[in-house]
Amino acid sequence: MTLRKGEKMTISIQEHMAIDVCPGPIKPIKQISDYFPRFPRGLPTAVGRSSTLRSTVSQPSVSPAEAPREEDEDVDQLFGAYGTTPAEQPAKCQAPEEVVDPEGYESDDCTTLGTLDFSLLYDQENNALHCTINKAKLPKLDYKKGLKPMDHNGLADPYVKLHLLPGASKANKLRTKTLRNTLNPTWNETLTYYGITDEDMIRKTLRISVCDEDKFRHNEFIGETRIPLKKLKPNQTKNFNICLEKQLPIDKTEDKSLEERGRILISLKYSSQKQGLLVGIIRCAHLAAMDANGYSDPYVKTYLKPDEDKKSKHKTAVKKKTLNPEFNEEFCYEIKHGDLAKKTLEVTVWDYDIGKSNDFIGGVVLGINAKGERLKHWFDCLKNKDKKIERWHTLTNELPGAVLSD
């Protein structure tokens, strides 16, 4: 066909369709998932850049009579997993296929969510639980199993957070630092819970979660594990290397610890040199949140009652925005040793508020009329002069005979 100068070439619709369709197999239309690293769950491997598709492109051209049949076979190979049964497939397509996990990233396979290496130590003498987070091994992105990618670069910004169950809240949440762009993070970081009693070791469970930090969206959950504290022996380090599991729901119906208002570490010592009782307010742990931001601004007041002259009040400094304040303050009450048996020490914890009355968080009373550990602490102080004795005490909502106003 010859064209004159300046004349445009015209192609009929029949010729246009022939050019588009023949020769060669029909190529699948590109989907948006071809341009981004997320694929629909359960997508067969053939839809990706499979060897089947590459092999069909490299085959020699065939006659037009045979082309439709070959094209049908290619389509079956590509999309057969979405509706055709093995009997309907061509014989040469019945190669062994990889089993797709229907649960995707929620599988209990260790390689799906990764593993976490850590150790736990219950220091019975100091009522402390030390949690050392060593390292983790997170999986590479596995689209075949439906694992959700963390970041666009296929890596993660992982950190570990701890909660004590029942009663998970900001008061007992601890977390490690965040490590950037890694699937094999190594923290070697020790997180410590203070005020842990033998009773806690029997009834509480430690929940350890691995998450991916995201600055622009909500942090993504990767996996978790839960360790009943009763598995630990006092003063013995126990090492763990555990497969992470999918997130489990928290049963709040049995959450009795929500009634607790927190704990306080108090030291008592009768000083023969100063002829007085030394009361140390060391720290508090797991305090109830009283402010809208989920925290409190706590401080502590102490009274030695009966207080006829109303001069026994002492107050610590205010610690801003914390549920686990550390005070390390000591007060002295000048009193004869023989008169202590008639006295009661009242310790209250408050949340400081500007422009309105302060909120009562909780308190504890030590003295001759107390019970349990509170009574034992008081008697140990009376029996052991010049010896500092520290004890953790649980804060209660109400104090008998106390004036709960600041």
**What would the average pLDDT be, to the nearest integer?**
76
User: How many extended strands?
Assistant: 16
Most strands sheet = 4 strands, antiparallel
Please state the structural category: alpha+beta
- Give the number of helices: 6
Stretches with pLDDT under 50, minimum 5 residues = 42-109, 142-147, 253-258
**H/E order of the elements?**
HHHHEEEEEHEEEEEEEEEEHE
Distance between the termini: 103 Å
Globally, the shape reads elongated
Q: In angstroms, what is the radius of gyration?
A: 34 Å
Strand order of the largest sheet: 5-2-1-8
The fraction of residues assigned to DSSP E strands is 25-35%
Helical coverage, percent range: 10-25%
Q: Would you write up a description of this structure?
A:
13% of the residues lie in helices and 30% in strands. With 406 residues, the chain is α+β, with helices and mostly antiparallel strands. The strands form four sheets. The chain has a four-stranded antiparallel β-sheet with strand order 5-2-1-8. The protein is elongated, with a radius of gyration of 34 Å. The chain starts with 12 loop residues before the first helix and ends in a 12-residue tail after the last strand.
Secondary structure layout plus pairing:
Layout: H1 13-21, H2 51-57, H3 67-79, H4 110-113, E1 115-123, E2 128-137, E3 158-165, E4 174-175, E5 186-194, H5 198-203, E6 205-212, E7 220-228, E8 238-243, E9 263-271, E10 276-285, E11 298-305, E12 314-315, E13 326-334, E14 344-351, E15 359-367, H6 372-383, E16 389-394
Antiparallel strand pairs: 1-2, 1-8, 2-5, 3-4, 3-6, 6-7, 9-10, 9-16, 10-13, 11-12, 11-14, 14-15
